[in-house]
Specification:
The protein is mostly helical. Among the domains are: 11-118, Multidrug-efflux Transporter Regulator, Chain: A, Domain 2 (Orthogonal Bundle); 120-179, Multidrug-efflux Transporter Regulator, Chain: A, Domain 2 (Orthogonal Bundle), CATH 1.10.1660.10. The chain has nine helices and two strands, in the order H-H-E-E-H-H-H-H-H-H-H. It has helices spanning 18-25, 34-42, 60-76, 80-91, 124-131, 135-143, 157-170, 176-201, 205-238; strands at 49-50, 56-57. A two-stranded antiparallel ribbon has the order 1-2. Helix 1 runs parallel beside helix 9. The longest helix is centred in the C-terminal third of the chain and has 34 residues, at 205-238. The protein is globular.
């Protein structure tokens, strides 16, 4: 669905990136992946919006549709052909006995901004206000490479997450110097995963770059899960559990 012709007067619908959708679905469907979401799109079961740069954006209705499809596969073992037929019938307003529950009405098309949603850059004051860190805390994290402003002094999309987590860890007495090893671990992961992502980004021009950026979400989520599991495993051994 192209958004280039949408009227600017429409109010912007809440939309999510494919990585954010993955995070919403995983607690209920542990084996879902970005590749799975792309496959369901290719099979015509869900049609996310597209930004001018080719990024997928999902509305709440898209997420609910994905939940219905995944649940039908997992709980009722329905083939995709049957699921597609039932969804098409429900979209037409038909009643299908024993089929999926009715879908919520699709929102009207809304224009997507040229700047990618969720990619907003923050000033130092905005970062402090939204994260709960004071100026000294931001300086501390910068000193140890955990926050890196750009040449204009602004902070990228991930900086707010880093700052918020650091603020929470500070309540346990952990400061920037304690968190510095995470920077080294992240740099090593970047070196490893970039070997997969750089070739992917060079495929099919802008679409290849968009696909690579979406894959970043999946790889980052998997690495975070692995890291968390290893930390929990080690701490459990420390506690004798």
């Amino acid at each position: 669905m192209s958004m280039t012709g949408a009227a600017a007067a429409h109010e912007l619908e809440p939309v999510l990136s494919i990585g954010e959708v993955l995070n919403l679905l995983r607690p209920e469907f542990a084996d879902v992946t970005i590749s799975k979401l792309r496959f369901l799109e290719a099979e015509g079961l869900v049609e996310p919006l597209r930004t001018p740069a080719g990024y997928r954006k999902y509305t709440p209705a898209h997420v609910e549709r994905l939940r219905l499809v995944l649940a039908a596969q997992r709980d009722r073992y329905l083939p995709l052909r049957v699921i597609r037929e039932q969804l098409d019938a429900l979209d037409r307003g038909e009643r299908v006995v024993g089929a999926l529950p009715p879908l919520p009405p699709a929102p009207p098309p809304a224009p997507l901004p040229r700047a990618e949603l969720g990619d907003a850059y923050l000033s130092r004051a905005q970062l402090a206000e939204r994260s709960g860190l004071d100026d000294a805390g931001i300086t501390d994290l910068q000193q140890y490479g955990l926050l890196v402003p750009d040449e204009t002094g602004r902070y990228g999309p991930e900086a707010l997450t880093v700052a918020r987590i650091a603020a929470q860890l500070a309540e346990y007495g952990l400061e920037g110097r304690h968190l510095r090893p995470y920077r080294g671990t992240a740099d090593r992961e970047v070196g490893l995963l970039s070997q997969l992502l750089v070739p992917l980004s060079r495929q099919a021009g802008a679409n290849g770059r968009a696909q690579a950026l979406e894959t970043v979400h999946e790889l980052a989520a998997l690495c975070a899960q692995l890291h968390g599991a290893l930390v929990r495993q080690g701490l459990r051994q420390v506690l004798g559990g």
